[in-house]
């Protein structure tokens, strides 16, 4: 009987993509997420006693609880919750693969990045693997990429975060799923450091929006530059009054202050396709 792979956050954008990848290859999947029934229900910061560990040979930890606010709550829920899962996985002699983010690096300023970095260090010390994806995209779109697609379709004039000259690195969800699957199944052993996972082409945020608009057949957007700190302040105020905007103020920091110099050193057979150029010229 082949071992199953457990995926936390299995209903999220990448978690669900990864689950489909394993299932298409005939691999059993334990989908752990907040909406699951007993035996599969998983919530960061909650107990682990109800999880079904039978035949689980690897855990891919994709889950992150964005409902947590403030560093103390984020650390309690996302950091301590992740470390509890790590310890349980290690005690069961299963592989642990942590899906981090390219917004995470030494000196990162977002709370999200700080939380990911703290977990990264513990995962590596325990012999697990750390993968830092770039901005994940694919068809159908999800996550932040889906938000950018909706904005490019709906608005002829787009508010631009500052000059929009901060770099992005894109990772197609199928390419990322192949990489993570091979690590989870033991086909690829990563060295004990975080590994950036994206196409190495550097795309400025404003050019990315132009490409997204062109791919969707939309008119070339007109940008209205707004200082990013002004946008950040407005988002913080909205969040204090419980107004959801589909994009968090802390995520804005991660977007603007992403890792300025990611290192791409995966084996060459784990390539990431370039993001389509569109018709932006």
Characterization of this structure:
The protein has helices spanning 13-24, 71-91, 111-125, 143-154, 173-184, 205-215, 228-240, 249-256, and strands at residues 4-8, 29-32, 56-61, 95-99, 129-133, 135-137, 157-161, 167-168, 170-172, 195-197, 203-204, 222-226. With 281 residues, it is an alpha/beta fold. It has a domain at 4-140 and 170-201: Rossmann fold (3-Layer(aba) Sandwich), CATH 3.40.50.720. The strands form four sheets. Strands 2-1-3-4-5-10 form a six-stranded parallel sheet, with helices on both faces. Helix 1 links the parallel strand 1 (4-8) and strand 2 (29-32). The mean pLDDT is 90.
Q: What is the overall number of helices? A: 8
How many strand units?
A: 12
Structural class computed from helices and strand pairing = alpha/beta
Distance between the termini: 54 Å
Query: What do the pLDDT scores average to?
Result: 90
Task: Walk across the major sheet and give the strand order.
Answer: 2-1-3-4-5-10
In the CATH hierarchy, the third-tier topology of the domain at 4-140 and 170-201 is known as: Rossmann fold
CATH superfamily label of the domain at 4-140 and 170-201: NAD(P)-binding Rossmann-like Domain
How much helix, percentage-wise, in residues? Answer: 25-40%
Named at the architecture level, the CATH assignment of the domain at 4-140 and 170-201 is 3-Layer(aba) Sandwich
């Amino acid at each position: 009987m082949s071992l199953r792979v457990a995926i936390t956050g299995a209903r999220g954008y990448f978690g669900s993509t990864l689950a489909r990848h394993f299932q298409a290859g005939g691999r059993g999947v334990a989908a752990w997420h907040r909406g699951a029934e007993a035996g599969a229900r998983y919530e960061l910061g909650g107990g682990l006693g109800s999880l079904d560990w039978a035949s689980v040979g690897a855990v891919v930890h994709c889950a992150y609880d964005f409902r947590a606010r403030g560093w103390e709550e984020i650390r309690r829920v996302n950091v301590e919750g992740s470390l509890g899962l790590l310890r349980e996985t290690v005690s069961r002699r299963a592989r642990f693969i942590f899906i981090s983010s390219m917004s995470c690096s030494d000196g990162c300023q977002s709370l999200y990045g700080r939380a990911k970095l703290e977990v990264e260090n513990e995962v590596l010390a325990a012999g697990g693997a750390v993968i830092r994806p770039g901005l994940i995209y694919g068809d159908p779109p999800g996550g932040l990429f889906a938000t950018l697609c909706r904005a490019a379709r709906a608005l002829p004039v787009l508010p631009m975060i500052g000059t929009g000259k901060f770099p992005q690195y894109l990772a197609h969800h199928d390419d990322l799923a192949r990489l993570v699957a091979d690590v989870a199944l033991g086909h690829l052993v990563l060295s004990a450091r975080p590994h950036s996972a994206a196409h190495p082409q550097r795309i400025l945020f404003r050019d990315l929006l132009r490409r997204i608009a062109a791919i969707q057949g939309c008119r070339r957007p007109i940008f209205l530059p707004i200082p990013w700190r002004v946008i950040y302040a407005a988002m913080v105020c909205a969040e204090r009054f419980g107004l959801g905007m589909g994009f968090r103020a802390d995520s804005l920091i991660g977007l603007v202050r992403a890792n300025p110099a990611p290192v791409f050193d995966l084996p060459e057979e784990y390539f990431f396709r370039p993001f389509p150029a569109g018709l932006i010229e």
